[in-house]
Amino acid sequence: MSEHWRLTDKGVTDSHGQYISAIYRHMQILISAELAPYQIGSGQYIFLMAIAFQQPITQKALSEKLLIDKTTTAKAIAKLEAEGYVRREADPADNRYQLLYLTESGREVVPKVQEALGRVKSKTRKGITDEEYDLLLGLLKIVLRNLSKQEEMLE
Amino acid sequence: MSEHWRLTDKGVTDSHGQYISAIYRHMQILISAELAPYQIGSGQYIFLMAIAFQQPITQKALSEKLLIDKTTTAKAIAKLEAEGYVRREADPADNRYQLLYLTESGREVVPKVQEALGRVKSKTRKGITDEEYDLLLGLLKIVLRNLSKQEEMLE
DNA sequence: TCAAATAAGATGTTATTGCAACTATTATTT
DNA sequence: AAATAATAGTTGCAATAACATCTTATTTGA
After folding, report:
1. Domain-embedded: residue A48
2. What keywords appear on the UniProt entry (chains A, B) (predicted)?
3. What is the CATH number of the domain that holds A89?
4. Could you tell me if residue A153 is inside a domain?
5. What is the CA B41 to C1' D18 distance in angstroms?
6. Alpha helices (H) in chain A, listed in sequence order
């Protein structure tokens, strides 16, 4: 009874947070290794893929879509631009916006990045059925929504 | 057909990686805010809790248990020691090992950290039943195991 | 119309994290 | 027993990411 601070295993390890962070860190390492040949880091590929999906797009829109801070977005885009994968163009209608496009080089690298991400995805979801995977995504989506809501409440 | 690089929404957004990283980043923010009063950052609390669970423990054991690089562990422990929550003691049987103990201050803060983590956990798993949560943990566990195996293969 | 407010981005700083390379200590091999 | 291996931990460096603050451009309101 005097050991009120002693913890059960449940309390320490069995919460999604621990798994999420371990998975995140390990995936970062895997993805970095996969994309190293293209000089694309784990902090940039999401932006490259999002631009490939919707072109042109602004940094603001990217930040909101990916739920990433706008300063992080700015720096990631700067790297992608420095590598020659992305091109910036001021929006003629509103000069505050930078419209982002893939360059020729960017269009060439996107399928390779997509394949690399596919490899990582299939490695990591081995042993999980399609039904289970859908379920996993659904639950992760709920967790993420809870977190985003939390953020709105703070504003 | 010339647009072989154009992506479907599935390909870009519907993979666990995106959710994992977004959840990870947002949880880091939430936890940092919750633990700010105790001068404990999002990079330290896991170690504090793991030491509370098993005392004494070495940095090596912490790194393996938490799947975190030993240099990260070293730095986190250094911070916890600087804040006065953790005490280091060379293992008399093998001076390479540092045995880690909670200090009095550490024992006092652990329940508060636990409560804070509990708050974060219940906020983020809102709308998820116990059965679904168990399922989520199970699936995350599989993903993490796949990633750890990947690591072993590289050795 | 012109000042104030708002919006998009950029920059500087800080925290978390991992790799490479290093020190110190213990174990192994010859 | 001395030389070599292996192990635990530390340090320096670089990448990711967020917050605070600043700049520039647009919109709003008086």
Report:
1. yes
2. DNA-binding, Transcription, Transcription regulation
3. 1.10.10.10
4. no
5. 13
6. 9-13, 16-35, 45-53, 59-66, 70-82, 104-124, 130-154
Name the residue with tokens 């995805």: A121
Angle at A24 between CA B78 and CA A41, to 5 degrees: 95
Distance in angstroms, CA of B140 to C1' of D9? Answer: 31
- Are residues A24 and B22, on separate chains, in Cβ contact within 8 Å? no
Instruction: Determine, yes or no, domain membership for B4.
Output: no
Between positions 4 and 63 of A, the ones with CB within 8 A of B are: 4-7, 9, 11-28, 30-31, 46, 49-50, 52-53
Least Cα separation, residue A89 to chain B (angstroms): 20
Range of the domain at A42: 12-124
Contacts of residue A84, defined as CB under 8 A and 6 or more positions apart, other chains included, come to A103, A105, A106
Q: How far is CA B154 from CA A89, A124, B73, B143, B151, in A?
A: 42, 15, 22, 17, 5
How many Cα atoms are found within 13 Å in the side-chain-facing hemisphere of B49? 28
Q: Does residue A141 lie within any of the structural domains?
A: no
In chain B, the number of structural domains is 1
Question: Going residue by residue through chain A (155 aa), what tens digit of pLDDT does each one get?
Answer: 333 344 444 444 478 999 999 999 999 999 999 999 999 999 999 999 999 999 999 999 999 999 999 999 999 999 999 999 999 999 999 999 999 999 999 999 999 999 999 999 999 999 999 999 999 999 999 999 999 876 555 44
